[in-house]
Structure formats: structure tokens, C-alpha cells
Write a structure and sequence with these properties.
Layout: H1 11-14, H2 31-36, E1 50-51, E2 57-63, H3 66-82, E3 86-92, H4 95-108, E4 114-117, H5 122-127, H6 135-140, E5 157-158, E6 161-162, E7 168-169, E8 172-177, H7 178-183, H8 200-208, E9 211-212, E10 228-234, H9 246-252, E11 258-259, E12 262-263, H10 268-282, H11 301-305, E13 310-316, H12 320-323, E14 330-333, E15 344-345, E16 350-353, H13 360-370, H14 373-381, E17 386-387, H15 393-402, H16 408-415, E18 418-419, H17 427-442, H18 448-463
Parallel strand pairs: 2-3, 2-4, 10-13, 15-18
Antiparallel strand pairs: 1-2, 4-16, 5-6, 7-17, 8-13, 8-14, 9-10, 11-12
Helix pairs in contact: 3-14, 14-15, 17-18
Length: 468
């Protein structure tokens, strides 16, 4: 979703969590404190809002991405010209501190008027009453829902009510090192597929790109798996929903990840998929050791790709700014299709209105601006985000074309079969439990079927324990 100028170690700041917080430790929302806060709309009131002697209202808008901060300051400047009685402070707080700051300030009654939200945290904050139900505002502000990607509109909808509309989106693709492909005399990996039985063309291709120190390829006589100098494929297996990793493989084999707030990938077919992913490491030796791709010492897929340790990597469009720092030519190809066909995880971030803002009307006006065509055009024009409106897609494409990067594979992904990771309550505890169990699976310490059952049982048990 959000492409950003942040380093590869800050990928989650750009999105998504993009959807999920990777093993995030945050202070839980204080239910009683938030519910007890009594706010007024007086001058200098709560939610960081106030009005000066001129009657101008000040709104605070908090986000975590330092790259998008630049773009949103440009957007807000135009908003202020159109709304001279509203001043907006854009506040950037790094991902490490974002959720602690937000939950603490909500409890204290001085949280920002608008703030970013990802899908993993969304249901918790809804249940705590921290988010404004925007359904009636959509009608009042004449927002045309048909302007948005239809497959994203449900993401920030809870019990039939809209709490936001998507501000952006991202999908996953396969990035590849052109020099390594050229040396191996391979064409671009544009039409690969995988299957659990023999690995499919993805495995054959990855074997041709995996080398041991004696110059032998994986699968070739004489290949030494204990001295690998170049791996064919890197897949993010960190155990937190893996937006750019195993969730895509599950989707491509028809295995649900999270449905209706419950995890459900502990099935016989789910076991088959995870065994396939383990085989990439332990049987076929085409992927880096799990110790490098799992928590707590995980390496992001781009941090294996950029130093040219691997030839191919699963990458989100939020990695584009990081990939642009590569010292070698690289390209983007579609994800290899699985037994159930092609599919990619799609994700989005939402802008939320604090339910206790002292200035609900002005906050709703700013909210509508931040998700409208004009603001999304500004952010897309400079390559920060794929806007949630298809009409701004060409701006994002043209920006990266000027950089010599063809990003249309990501665009093809959003128009094809997409799956949403889905949201689940008590996200911090749930994703931590998921990571702990899945990491043991990939480190080969627990049988796959046992690990998956324990993972799903723990995720669903913790999800029922409230919003803390």
C-alpha cells in the first residue's frame, strides 16, 4: 500500500502491516479510560484541537510513514487553501511508538482528530468506541462509493457500518535480479507456477538460480547445500500473517487465512502448503535458512534481495522506494500461480476520525478530502501510494515509469483475484502468538500439522478475549 522513502527496516511503517503489525508491542487501549473521557468542543479543547481568536479550528492528523508525510503535507496545504478556517497539523510518529502513543492519548482524551489505522488493529479500536462511524458522513458529504475499488470497500466496514474508506492499496509481486537471470541465461519469470508435489516451474527456475560455492546449481550433481553462495528465491516467512509470504501461497491453493474474524488455515490442505514452503528450504535448498527469514532475527525479503544474496523475492509495492536504491538492474513479475490459480494479498490503510474529536464536522471534512480524488492525485503523482480510486492509477504508473520501473504488475494484481488477510480482534496478542508458533514450524522444531493446529487455536482463543 503505501510506498515510502523509508529504509527496508521500516517496511511496516509504509503499510502494512500494511495490514498487520509485525510482532508489535504496544500498550493496549484502556477501555475504561477511553469510555470515561468527557470532551467538549470549547476553544483549546481535547483531541489536540483548538481555535484561536480568529475562530480558526486546528485539527491534528497523525500518520506513521515519514515518506508519505511529505505528500500529505502537500495535500493538506491545498485543503487549507480551500478551507481557510481550518488549520491542519500533520504529525508523523514512527511505527515503533505509533500505537502506544495513540492508545495512551485516546485514554487521556488528547488524541489526534484523525489518524491512520491498519486492518489488524481496526476491530479493536472499533470495539473500544474510539472511531467515528462515517456511514452517515458518506451520504452527507456526497461521497461516491463507485469511485473506489469495489474489492477494497469492505475492508474498514464493521457490522455493516463504514468507519473509513480505503486511502490506498497494495499487492504483491515477484522481484528479480536481471543480472543473475542473464548470467543463468533465463528469461524473465513472467509465467511461473508451483505445486506441492514437485515444486512446478517455480522450483525449476529457482534451482537454476541457486548456486553452491563450487559453481553447481541446486538439483545438479555435485551441488553442495552446506555452502550456498546464491539462493534462487526469498519468501518472507516471519510468521505474522505474512502479507508478502505464506498468505499468498495459501490463497493460491484455496486455503482461507482469516474468515469472519477467525483463523482457519489448519486444514489438511494448509498443511500441504506449509510443507511445500518448508521444502523450499530443507529439501530443495533454493530459499535461505529459516533462521534468516523468521523472528526475532528475520531479514526482510528486500534485505536479502538488495545485497544480491537471492535472485528473486516476494515484494510489495510498498518496497518500491527501497528497491529503487538497488545497485543492479531489477524487474517485477507476477506471482507464480498455485494449484488454485493466480492470487495476491491486497491490503489498504484507512484514515479514521477520532470519535471524541472536539470538531467532528471539520474533521469529517478533512477526512473526505484525504480520501478524495484531488488528495489521492497528489500522493499518486509523486509515487507515494496507489490511490484507492482507479482513476489515479495512471499517475502512479507514470511516476515510476520516469524512474525506469514498470509497476503495472501490481496494477494487474488488484484487477485480478485478490484476497484480504481479514481482521481479527486483539491483534497484538493474536499476531504475537501466530509468529511464535509459525516460527517454530519453519525452524523445523514442530511438525507442520501440530504447529498449524496450535497456531489457529491460540489465534482464535486470544481473539475472543476482548480488545486488549
Amino acid at each position: 500500500m503505501p510506498a515510502s522513502t523509508a529504509s527496508s527496516s521500516l517496511r511496516i511503517q509504509r503499510r502494512p502491516g500494511r495490514i498487520r503489525a509485525r510482532n508489535t508491542r504496544r500498550i493496549a487501549l484502556a477501555v475504561a479510560a477511553v469510555g470515561a473521557v468527557v470532551l467538549t468542543a470549547c476553544s483549546g479543547g481535547s483531541s489536540g484541537s483548538g481555535s484561536g481568536g480568529s475562530g480558526k479550528v486546528t485539527l491534528n492528523y497523525m500518520l506513521w510513514d515519514p515518506g508519505q508525510e511529505v505528500g500529505y503535507k502537500q495535500s493538506v496545504a491545498e485543503f487549507e487553501q480551500a478551507h481557510p478556517n481550518i488549520h491542519v497539523n500533520v504529525i508523523q510518529v514512527g511505527w515503533t511508538d505509533y500505537w502506544t502513543k495513540l492508545s495512551t492519548e485516546l485514554a487521556g482524551g488528547n488524541a489526534p482528530d484523525l489518524f491512520w489505522m491498519n486492518l489488524s488493529e481496526f476491530p479493536t479500536y472499533v470495539k473500544e468506541g474510539a472511531l467515528t462511524n462515517m456511514t452517515s458522513w458518506i451520504s452527507k458529504l456526497h461521497i461516491n462509493l463507485k469511485s473506489y475499488y469495489s474489492n477494497l470497500l469492505q475492508l474498514f466496514k464493521y457490522q455493516g457500518q463504514y468507519y473509513s474508506l480505503p486511502k490506498d492499496w497494495d499487492t504483491i509481486a515477484l522481484c528479480y535480479n536481471k543480472n543473475m537471470l542473464k548470467k543463468a541465461n533465463l528469461p524473465p519469470p513472467t509465467n511461473l507456477s508451483w505445486n506441492p508435489a514437485d515444486g512446478g516451474t517455480l522450483l525449476r527456475y529457482a534451482e537454476d538460480l541457486t548456486l553452491s560455492s563450487n559453481g553447481k546449481h541446486a538439483g545438479e550433481a555435485g551441488f553442495d547445500p552446506s555452502h550456498i553462495t546464491q539462493y534462487g528465491l526469498s519468501v518472507d516467512l516471519d510468521g505474522n500473517g505474512s502479507q508478502d509470504g505464506y498468505a499468498n501461497f495459501l490463497a493460491q491453493d484455496g486455503v482461507p487465512y482469516v474468515t469472519n474474524g477467525k483463523a482457519g488455515f489448519d486444514t489438511p490442505q494448509g498443511t500441504v502448503v506449509f510443507n511445500f514452503l518448508k521444502n523450499l528450504i530443507y529439501k530443495w535448498h533454493v530459499a535461505p535458512p529459516a533462521s534468516e527469514t523468521t523472528l526475532p532475527t528475520f531479514a526482510e525479503t528486500t534485505s536479502a534481495f538488495l545485497p544480491q544474496k537471492v535472485a528473486m523475492s516476494y515484494c510489495g509495492d510498498y518496497d518500491l522506494y527501497t528497491l529503487a536504491t538497488a545497485k543492479f538492474p531489477w524487474g517485477i513479475a507476477p506471482l507464480p500461480a498455485g494449484p488454485d490459480g493466480a492470487a495476491t494479498v491486497a491490503n489498504s490503510l484507512g484514515v479514521m476520525v477520532n470519535s471524541h474529536t472536539a470538531h467532528p464536522e471539520q474533521a469529517a471534512t478533512l477526512w473526505a478530502w484525504l480520501i478524495n480524488h484531488q488528495s489521492e492525485s497528489i500522493l499518486s503523482h509523486d509515487g507515494y501510494i496507489w490511490g484507492s480510486m482507479p482513476s489515479v492509477d495512471p499517475l502512479f504508473v507514470k511516476y515510476w515509469q520516469r524512474k525506469g520501473v514498470d509497476v503495472t504488475t501490481y496494477l494487474d494484481g488488484i484487477h485480478g483475484k485478490t484476497i484480504n488477510l481479514g481482521f481479527i480482534t486483539n491483534a497484538n496478542a493474536v499476531t504475537t502468538a501466530e509468529a511464535n508458533e509459525i516460527n517454530l514450524l519453519f525452524l523445523n522444531r514442530v511438525p507442520v500439522d501440530t504447529a498449524l493446529k496450535d497456531t489457529v487455536d491460540n489465534m482464535n482463543r486470544l481473539a475472543t478475549q476482548g480488545g486488549q
